[in-house]
């Protein structure tokens, strides 16, 4: 058996204990892996950052949209009313700005059909025609005496005729009566809330004014309102 020299054994021992060498190709592969992972992490971070930003913008945009949402359009108040009677139609212009509460009550009464079938229960020449409940506890004698008084006045007084109004004093049971003046009346606002003016159908008002009445100024033949139509435009 051949004998191994000590120098050869020493060299073999150094070869076994020495570190293994890593090739350049391995370095390149590891480097590429690190670069790809870093790029992936950066791309993921950028994606989630942008997504969070867009979500925040959407929320803010929604809040701004809600706060800037236009107010609901107000319902237009009718400006005119056509009072259809057994004699013909009378068109009136409503004074919403001057008598808002009275106009609102009148419109509500029209919408509920309260004027349908209402009779003109007082017709006083050169004074007023009145529609309402003939059995209401109104001051009939007062209106009658005032009618006689105004029949003796000069009707050329500078106060408009053909004004639409309702009594200021309401009975306990409520209700809404109508007055249309047929002559200039100086102290009209003493008893009546004026809330409109006849703009068409003055001849119908005058025709009603000329009907035969009894001693209490009640028409001998019934004259009534068949319907009241509200209009925004004519």
UniProtKB/TrEMBL annotation:
Transmembrane helix keyword on record: yes
Where the record annotates domain PPIase cyclophilin-type, the positions are 88-230
Q: Record's Gene3D superfamilies?
A: Cyclophilin-like
Q: Which Pfam families match?
A: Pro_isomerase (PF00160)
PROSITE patterns per record: CSA_PPIASE_2
Q: Which reactions fall under this protein's catalytic activity?
A: [protein]-peptidylproline (omega=180) = [protein]-peptidylproline (omega=0)
Q: Which UniProt keywords apply?
A: Isomerase, Membrane, Rotamase, Transmembrane, Transmembrane helix
Q: Which PANTHER family match?
A: PEPTIDYL-PROLYL CIS-TRANS ISOMERASE CYP21-4
Query: This chain belongs to which protein, by name?
Result: Peptidyl-prolyl cis-trans isomerase
What organism does the record attribute this protein to?
Sesamum indicum (Oriental sesame)
Q: Which gene encodes it?
A: LOC105163036
């Amino acid at each position: 058996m051949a004998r191994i020299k000590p120098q050869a054994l020493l060299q073999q021992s150094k070869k076994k204990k020495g570190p293994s060498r890593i090739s350049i190709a391995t370095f390149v592969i590891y480097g590429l892996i690190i670069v790809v992972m870093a790029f992936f992490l950066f791309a993921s971070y950028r994606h989630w950052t942008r997504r969070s930003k867009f979500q925040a913008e959407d929320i803010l945009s929604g809040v701004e949209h809600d706060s800037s949402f236009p107010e609901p359009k107000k319902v237009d108040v009718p400006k005119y009313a056509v009072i259809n009677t057994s004699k013909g139609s009378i068109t009136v212009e409503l004074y919403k700005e001057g008598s808002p509460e009275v106009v609102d009550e009148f419109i509500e009464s029209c919408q509920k059909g309260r004027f349908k079938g209402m009779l003109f229960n007082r017709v006083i020449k050169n004074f007023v025609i009145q529609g309402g409940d003939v059995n209401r506890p109104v001051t009939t004698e007062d209106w009658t005496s005032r009618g006689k008084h105004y029949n003796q006045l000069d009707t050329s007084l500078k106060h408009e005729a053909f004004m639409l109004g309702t009594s200021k004093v309401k009975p306990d049971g409520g209700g809404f009566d109508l007055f249309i003046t047929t002559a200039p009346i100086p102290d009209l606002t003493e008893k009546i809330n004026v809330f409109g003016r006849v703009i068409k159908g003055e001849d119908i008002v005058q025709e009603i004014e000329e009907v035969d009445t009894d001693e209490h100024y009640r028409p001998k033949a019934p004259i009534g309102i068949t319907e009241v139509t509200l209009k925004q435009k004519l």
